[in-house]
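As a warm-up, study this chain.
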Amino acid sequence: MRRFVGLFFGFWVVVGTSGADSQAPLERIAFGSCYKPEKKGGVWAGVRKFDPQLWIWLGDNFYHDWANGKYVRTNDDPDSFAKGYRALGRSEGVQALQSLAADRVMATWDDHDFGKNDAGKEYDRKEESRKAFAKFFGVPDRPDGIYSSRDFGPEGKRVRVILLDTRYNRDSLPRKGEALSDGDILGESQWSWLGEELARTGANLIILGSSIQFVSEQHRFEKWANFPKAKDRMLELLKTVRAQGVVFISGDRHHAEISCLPEGLVGYPLYDITSSGITEGGGIGKEENRYRVADLWNANNFGAIQIDWSQANPTVSLEIRDEKGNEVRQVSFPFTQLALPKQ
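Now compare it with the structure written out below.
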């Protein structure tokens, strides 16, 4: 079964709506975040060299609050979203991905392309923003956000990519002086949908995309740890549905790193590979992260996941790559490391 989904980079496209979208096993996946389309360069030469089979836009795909070369606290231009997506559609990044079929590019957003720095469900232009995103990327225009899921590859070599919406229903950040919030990130409809996607059988590896970091918790910026009830709920959901083979990918931070929660929390080590930014890397210096397992990379970068299906026990490589496409940080492990013990 197939259907028209809408405009993708300015063209109407058709994608499958049931089963795995492609029978070709994914071996090379790339992703990135924090991109100012008006800037030249960045990581795109390296992305072309890596030649991914799937690209994931992980948020801040353009900066709605960056106008005429400077930051604006609130962008009230009624044509601002149309202008932002026109710039993205003409960008070097989109041109670099033209060799990929429409169903081999996926996307979610973060605060700057959602519309406003650190914004959540209180953002007064969120419906307008949602419709513009859905039209450009050709994703389902859900009334409560832009979350999506897609399967790739045949049985036994199947990858499921689940992209969360951490903006449309997110409660307010902790107030100044408060470290944590009792609020939620996803909203009840998205939580229900996520449980179904995690419980659905058939995936050997599940890539769970969150625009903000899931594992790292010591920095003062946006992260799941600012909403401890929501983070605990995610860990409990993974345990309850016995989702195995899950790896988080994240962006937002203007640097790259690989973090890992210990095995006891969900039954296997829970990795989070953070890649940011495509053009905005180098935003910080040293930063504490007790869960970091590969040194922080503080320059432009993109994230990569390589899968070697040729072995009896396939292996996964989580990689940070620089502007030239060279691997600068890496963690590898066999699939069995992400397996739950049999009940």
